[in-house]
């Protein structure tokens, strides 16, 4: 068996179909996953897939692997990733989602979870699955499992609408860009009956992504949504990524609302329901998030970047909500799993409960200027980080920590984080300061060392 480390990532399995992923290999992954979760004594595994051309076939191969080990399969068919998490949580069964999220059409992958949508990452089962496949999956002598189909979309939508009540809100016009991804599958059902006039964009499911990449983190993929919001006079715009687990928001002017502001807004709403609750934020979210959480009586907890760390910390602290700069939003009421759709409903509920525009509402949650993520290709990630640390560590009032990469907080309140990519020879820089001028100055200073 070839080396699988190139496709078994920190949080999922992902690779180029036909080159790195094929039906035989995916069948083995299904069998290995069944062996892993058998220890939890499940009755079945839930499987869903996105709209990519390769997804149904790979999902069927995985199901064949699962059933070869004596476990049943519940196939929920076309689904968003958070719809798969809903199925795993509500049925209390382990799950597998076939998607490569925002990656180009030639890719596919598998996101895995245990019963109750508990994450399976490198340290919680993925490495074990990789090793089982590499060494050869043992044959099972017992009876094969069976495959049944089940549609959970309506139940998923009903669960979300139960968590956020928009029924008494003023009517809103909302543009949604699904990017030809799974938002086109879930949004019509979730929004059905809500006081929302929906303006759909690119709802046709098409894994070749004919209009733009389904990656709203890249500003160029928001351009169509921004134009449509302005053109139609909409109250807000939403953009989903390929598997619709992340949601980006633009206001009535077509201006992007930073995910940190969305995190703070949702945190305040969740704290109103549970005063004193714990809110998780990763270390790249704006400093405004922990400030606002404390101001509203909550307990902010800072974590490393990545859903496995967020979910682990949510379990440890019994946090009610967690947010990341990448527009992943996690809810205790959703089995601690991430769902962009639920975050979007919170934003729309907050907007519809008052008369002002979204820009006015979110301004109170945006306090600082930020650089966004800046990538630099470097020969030696460690050496460049050390050079930056040495340059700032002796500065008066500077606080340095290495929870995740290098974070430096300066006396004037500005800060930056410099992290190495897990998969590429890159260093990723995020800077926040009081205003754009201060951001530019600090960014230039750090990059001068990184790119020396």
Automatic annotation (TrEMBL):
CDD domains with a match to the protein in the record: PMM_PGM
Chain ranges of the Alpha-D-phosphohexomutase C-terminal domain: 373-447
MF GO annotations: phosphomannomutase activity
Annotated source species: Amycolatopsis magusensis
Residues of the Alpha-D-phosphohexomutase alpha/beta/alpha domain: 8-133, 155-254, 263-368
Alphabetical UniProt keywords: Isomerase, Magnesium, Metal-binding, Phosphoprotein
Signal peptide (UniProt feature, chain positions): none
Domain of life of the native organism: Bacteria
EC number annotated for this UniProt entry: 5.4.2.8
Cofactor(s) named in the record: Mg(2+)
Statement: the UniProt record of this protein carries the keyword Metal-binding: yes
Protein name: Phosphomannomutase
Database matches in InterPro entries: A-D-PHexomutase_a/b/a-I, A-D-PHexomutase_a/b/a-I/II/III, A-D-PHexomutase_a/b/a-II, A-D-PHexomutase_a/b/a-III, A-D-PHexomutase_C, A-D-PHexomutase_C_sf, Alpha-D-phosphohexomutase_SF
Family: Belongs to the phosphohexose mutase family.
Pfam families, per database record: PGM_PMM_I, PGM_PMM_II, PGM_PMM_III, PGM_PMM_IV
Enzyme class, first EC level, given as a word: isomerase
């Amino acid at each position: 068996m070839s080396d699988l480390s190139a496709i078994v990532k920190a949080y999922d399995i992902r690779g180029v179909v036909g080159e790195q992923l094929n039906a035989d290999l995916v069948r083995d992954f299904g069998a290995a996953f069944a062996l892993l979760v058998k220890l939890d004594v499940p009755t079945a595994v839930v499987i869903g897939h996105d709209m990519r051309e390769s997804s149904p076939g790979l999902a069927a191969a995985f199901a064949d692997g699962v059933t070869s080990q004596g476990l049943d399969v519940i196939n929920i068919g076309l689904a968003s990733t958070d719809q798969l998490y809903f199925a795993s949580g509500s049925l209390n069964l382990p799950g597998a989602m076939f998607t490569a999220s925002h990656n180009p059409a030639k890719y596919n992958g598998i996101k895995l979870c245990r019963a109750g949508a508990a994450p399976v990452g490198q340290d919680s089962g993925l490495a074990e699955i990789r090793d089982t496949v590499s060494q050869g999956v043992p044959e099972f002598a017992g009876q094969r499992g069976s495959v049944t189909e089940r549609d959970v979309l309506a139940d998923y939508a009903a669960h979300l609408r139960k968590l956020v009540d928009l029924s008494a809100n003023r009517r809103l016009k909302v543009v949604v860009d699904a990017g030809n991804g799974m938002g086109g599958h879930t949004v019509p059902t979730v929004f059905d009956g809500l006081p929302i006039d929906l303006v759909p964009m690119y709802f046709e499911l098409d894994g070749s992504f004919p209009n733009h990449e389904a990656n709203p983190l890249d500003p160029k993929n928001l351009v169509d949504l921004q134009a449509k919001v302005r053109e139609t006079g909409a109250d807000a715009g939403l953009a989903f990524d390929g598997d619709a687990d992340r949601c980006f928001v633009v206001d009535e002017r077509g201006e992007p609302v930073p995910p940190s502001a969305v995190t703070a807004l949702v945190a305040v709403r969740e704290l109103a329901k549970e005063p004193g609750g714990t809110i998780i934020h990763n270390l790249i979210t704006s400093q405004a998030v922990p400030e606002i959480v404390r101001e509203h009586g909550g307990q902010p907890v800072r974590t490393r970047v990545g859903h496995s760390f967020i979910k682990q910390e949510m379990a440890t602290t019994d946090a009610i909500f967690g947010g990341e700069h990448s527009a992943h939003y996690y809810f205790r009421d959703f089995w601690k799993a991430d769902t962009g759709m639920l975050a979007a409903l919170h934003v729309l509920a907050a907007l519809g409960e008052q008369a002002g525009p979204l820009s006015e509402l979110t301004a109170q949650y945006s306090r600082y200027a930020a650089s966004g993520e800046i990538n630099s290709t470097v020969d030696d990630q460690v050496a460049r980080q050390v050079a930056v640390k040495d340059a700032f560590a002796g500065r008066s009032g500077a606080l340095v920590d290495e929870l995740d990469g290098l974070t430096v907080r300066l006396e004037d309140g500005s800060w930056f984080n410099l992290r190495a990519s897990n998969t590429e020879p890159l260093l990723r820089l995020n800077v926040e300061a009081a205003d754009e001028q201060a951001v530019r100055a600090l960014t230039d200073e750090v990059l001068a060392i990184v790119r020396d």
